[in-house]
Amino acid sequence: MTLSKRVDGGTDTENAWCSALCCLRCRGPLRTGTELRCDACSTVYPVDDGIPRFVPRDNYAAGFGYQWNRHRLTQLDSHSGMPITRDRLMNASGWTVSDLKEKTVLECGSGAGRFTEVLCETGAKVTSVDISSAVHANAASNGRFPNLRIVQASIYELPFPEESFDFLFCCGVIQHTPDVEKTFKTLFRYLRPGGRFCIDVYAAIIAYTHPRQLLRPIAKRVPPAKLYALVERTVPRLLPLSMKLSAVPRVGQCLTRLVPVANHSHLGQMDAETARNWSVLDTFDWLSPRYERPQPRRRLERWTRELGLREVSIERHRGLYVISGVK
Ligand SMILES: C[S@@+](CC[C@H](N)C(=O)[O-])C[C@H]1O[C@@H](n2cnc3c(N)ncnc32)[C@H](O)[C@@H]1O
Q: Where's the Methyltransferase type domain (predicted)?
């Protein structure tokens, strides 16, 4: 359920949770209604289709909004019938359902809500944030969960009290922000001391040497609808070749890098149309982001030291570093 629906008709406990939003300008409380109003400094924030918005409608992540509204369901486990996202979240974080149940979770950069769905199913109280119009795709798919609130906002300026969440989850996101170090460090302001986190980021060198990097400088400047149409035409031609190459023993994974379409290992378990759909989505996701800034392990180690994080693990999962631990 999105925020305004709940504040209009929720229980007192729900309202207390939902209305704990702060003004970005003065950090004062916001009064809820058809819009959000700060009585202390008179700033007003719009509520679009039940989702409070703390950023301009148009921003650097508009391509993501386009992508996730076109592929609202593609990667949701409830749609694919495969636990791909659940497995990724649980393996990356090491969290269990009983760790999460009834705890507060801040999910940043939620896209269409594939991870939101898994988090909500654990019984956690989930707050999902995205800077783009993807929040509307997420609400359409996951709005049925009473333990979810969705906010359109930027990680750089979040309308929540500091140190107020038990868990922080942010996967697939920070490399796509303009200042990755600032993004990484800002996220921890909202996690309580002793709270647990899981963040991933593209791994430097591996991601930088991918052939998509030859196309990105041009592709990211093409308007989303045009680029999407191009990807939609190209994938059906190149994906069969990529699949054949990936079947070559030992060197298959390297060979697929020569063909500029996304081809993950689980596509082989899907029917042809579903695999094409995933590949179109992921190929667009490779080519369209304004920012893509992979990070080296040493830099991540330095940031976690500077923040005084504990029990830190930085593990490489294919082309990603997964950073988890305790604040
Ligand atoms: C590659 S998508 C990943 C979505 C989702 N986490 C997933 O893995 O399916 C990256 C998401 O981060 C969001 N994003 C980028 N910069 C952001 C920021 N500053 N604050 C919040 N969200 C941001 C984008 O709008 C986009 O939906």
A: 106-199
Distances in Å between the Cα of 24 and the Cα atoms of 4, 61, 144, 160, 243 are 18, 20, 28, 9, 48
In the chain the domains, ranked by start, together with CATH numbers, are: 52-203+297-326 (3.40.50.150), 213-287 (no CATH)
Is residue 12 predicted with pLDDT exceeding 80? no
The residue-averaged pLDDT of 116-120 equals 98
Strands 125-130 and 47-48: unpaired
Q: Which atom of ligand 1 is found nearest the CA of 129?
A: 21
- Cα 12 to averaged position of ligand 1 atoms, centre (Å): 31
Q: What is the DSSP string of 68-81?
A: HHHTSSTT-HHHHS
Q: How far is the CA of 248 from the centre of ligand 1 (A)?
A: 34
Q: Is 113 exposed, middle or buried (0-12, 13-18, 19+ CB in 10 A)?
A: buried
